[in-house]
Amino acid sequence: MTNTTTKVAVLGGGSFGTVLANLVAGNGISCALWMRNEQRAAEVMNSRENAEYFPGFILDKRLNITSNFDEAIEDAELIIMAVPSSAYDTVCSQLEQRISRNTLILSTAKGIRADGFRLMSEVIQEHLPHNPVGVLSGPNLAKEIADNQYTATLVASASTEVVEASQTALASPTFRVYAGDDPQGAELAGALKNIYAIIAGITGSMQLGQNTVSMLITRSLAEMCRLASELGAEPMTFMGLAGVGDLFVTCTSPLSRNYRVGQALGQGKTLEQAVAEIGQTAEGVATLKTVYDKAQELGVRMPLVDGLYRLIYEHVEISEIITSLMTAQQATDVEHKVKGI
Ligand SMILES: NC(=O)C1=CN([C@@H]2O[C@H](COP(=O)(O)OP(=O)(O)OC[C@H]3O[C@@H](n4cnc5c(N)ncnc54)[C@H](OP(=O)(O)O)[C@@H]3O)[C@@H](O)[C@H]2O)C=CC1
Ligand SMILES: O=C(CO)COP(=O)(O)O
Fold first, then answer.
1. 116 is in an annotated binding site
2. Residue 19, beta-bridge partner list
3. Residue 332 lies in a domain
C-alpha cells in the first residue's frame, strides 16, 4: 500500500481507535472501525457519534462502523490494532487464518504483557509470524486529535511498507507521522511512560511546584532509558516523540487516564476506586508490576517505579516514599548514566 491505499481496518472502537479510524476516513480512504459490541456499533454507525467515548465528536460520514469482524478486515491492506494490550492475544488469534501474509499490521497499544514481558509487536508476531508489523507511539491524547489540535506521532518499523502505508492512511494537515527504525524503543517508551504519568498525577494532586514536576519528568526519562537500553533498545529513541514527547504530555495533562488514576490515588482513593472512576483503559496500572518485576530480575535501578510499587502494593505512606527518594545515597560516579543523554 503506498499512495493508492484502498482499505484500512481499525480494530477497537474506544478512544484511540475511534480517532484513528476517523483520520483514515477523513483522508478519503475506505476504512472500517470494528467494535465488539453489536448494539453499540449499530448505534455509532447510525448516530455518527461514539457517545460513550467522545460525546459530541461527529464522525466522518465515509467511516464504516461494524461489529462484523470478517467484514471489517476483508481486503484490508493495513490493520490498525487499537484494543488494549490485555486484548491483543484474543484479537490477534481471530486474525490467524483470516488475513494474507502481505497484510500490514500497525500496533498502537501502550502496554506490556506480564507473561514473558512481551511487547505488543511480539504478541502480534507470535500469532502472525509472516506479517510486516509496525508500532505507533507518541504524544497522542485522543481527545486533542479529535479536536484537530496539531499533533505528531512516530511509526517505527523494520518494514518501509508499514511506515509508508501508515503515513498515507493517517497523516493529515493536523496529524504528522514521523518514521522510526527502533520499534522496540518506541514500544517500551509508550508503555513505560504510563507508570510515570500515574506518579505525576499523584504529585499533581499534592500541588507541588514546577521544580518538582521537572525533576520528576527528567528522572523518569533517565529510568526509562536505563531499563530500555538494558533490554537492547536505542536510548536516542527516548529523546523523540515516543519518549520525552509522550512522557511530557501524559505527565502534565489530566486528559491522560493514567495521570487521572494518579490524581485519584493522591486524593486518598484506593487503586480499585481510582481505576473504576476512570472507567477506561489505564495501562500503567498493570505495567507497573510487570516493570517492577523485570527491573528486579535485571538489577536495573528504578527508584520511581519502586516508590510507586511501595505506595500501591505495600501501602507505604507517600511522605515516607518522598523522603527516601530525596535522601537516598547519591552516586558519585557516572555508572547510572545512559550513553546518549
Ligand atoms: N486514548 C488515548 O489517548 C491513547 C491510547 N493509546 C493506547 O491505545 C490502546 C487502547 O486504548 P483506548 O482506545 O484509549 O482505550 P479505551 O478504554 O478508550 O477503549 C478500549 C476499546 O477496546 C475495546 N476492547 C477491550 N477489550 C476488547 C476485546 N477483548 N476485544 C475487542 N475489543 C476490546 C473496548 O470495547 P468496549 O467499549 O466494548 O469495552 C473499547 O472499544 C491502549 O493500549 C492505550 O494505551 C495510545 C495512544 C493514545
Ligand atoms: O498515551 C497517551 C497519550 O499519548 C494516552 O495516555 P493515557 O492512556 O494515560 O490516557
1. no
2. none
3. no
